[in-house]
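Collaborator request, handled under Task 6.
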Amino acid sequence: MTGSAIEDDVQIIFVRSAGPGGQNVNKLATAAQLRFRLDKSRALDEASKQRLRKLAGRRLTDAGEILII
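C-alpha cells returned to the collaborator:
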C-alpha cells in the first residue's frame, strides 16, 4: 500500500476558471478542484460516509466523489 489513507482519498487538480480574468482569462489554471473519493475512502467508517453523502448534496458525483471547486 502506498501513501496514507487520506492521500489516497483526496485529489487536487488545477483547472481554468470561469469569470473575469483580464488578459489571463482561459490561459492559466487559476481554480482548484478538490475531489474526495468518498465511496473508496478507508479513512472513514460507514456511518461517517452516510452523513457526508447527505451533507454533500449536489457536490456528490455519480462516481461517489465529493467535488469542491
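The cover message to the collaborator said: "The chain has two helices and three strands. The beta strands are 10-15, 31-37, 65-68. Please let us know whether this matches your experimental observations."
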